[in-house]
Amino acid sequence: MTKKQSSTEDAEAIAVESKAEETKNRDELFAVLKEICTFVDVQGYILKDSTTATINLEDSEKTTSYAMLSSQAFESAEVLRQTCRFGENETMLVDCADLKVLCTTIGEAAVSIFMGKEVDHTKILSKLLSL
After folding, report:
1. What is the pTM of this model?
2. What is the mean pLDDT of the chain?
3. Could you say which architecture CATH assigns to the domain 7-129?
4. Separation between Cα atoms, residue 121 and residue 24, nearest integer Å
5. Any alpha helices (H) in the chain, and if so which ranges?
6. What pLDDT, in 10s, does the model give residues 22-70?
7. Do the Cβ atoms of 40 and 123 come closer than 8 Å?
8. DSSP class of residue 6?
């Protein structure tokens, strides 16, 4: 007679596999973000998921301003999506007077990359989307 596994054991096995996959994906994302930060005139990034936020910026004095800009960009995009009945927002570019911010969602993580005006954001986006 075969002993049937309990559903609790199955759920635990699935949770462990899920955590391992999440860790792998997060490590890959951090590797790509680290590479992107080596590009000329890329000032850093903010990576935010449901439980944590990681901030890597050249100028720590701008952390609060950049975090607010990133948060507002994602919130405004959501309002526009709902108001105009657009599909899901995948990527947006905020083009300021002396700064560009590329905002995108990778899995469950919201990523904002801050760069100078002359940076080719399409190169950065293709790096991110290669994950």
Report:
1. 0.79
2. 85
3. 2-Layer Sandwich (3.30)
4. 25
5. 7-36, 63-84, 121-129
6. 777 889 999 999 999 999 999 999 999 889 999 999 999 999 999 999 9
7. no
8. P
Residue 1 tokens, joined: 């007679």
Please write the tens of the pLDDT for every residue from 109-118. Answer: 999 999 999 9
Structural domain boundaries in the chain: 7-129
Please give the structure tokens belonging to residue 63.
């952390």
Virtual torsion, Cα 64, 71, 55, 119, nearest 10 deg: -100
CA angle 44, 65, 77 (to 5 degrees): 85
Q: Which residues contact 55 (CB under 8 A, 6 or more apart)?
A: 44, 45, 46, 47, 63, 67
For CA atoms 38, 94, 57, 24, the dihedral sign is negative
Q: Is the pLDDT of residue 74 over 60?
A: yes
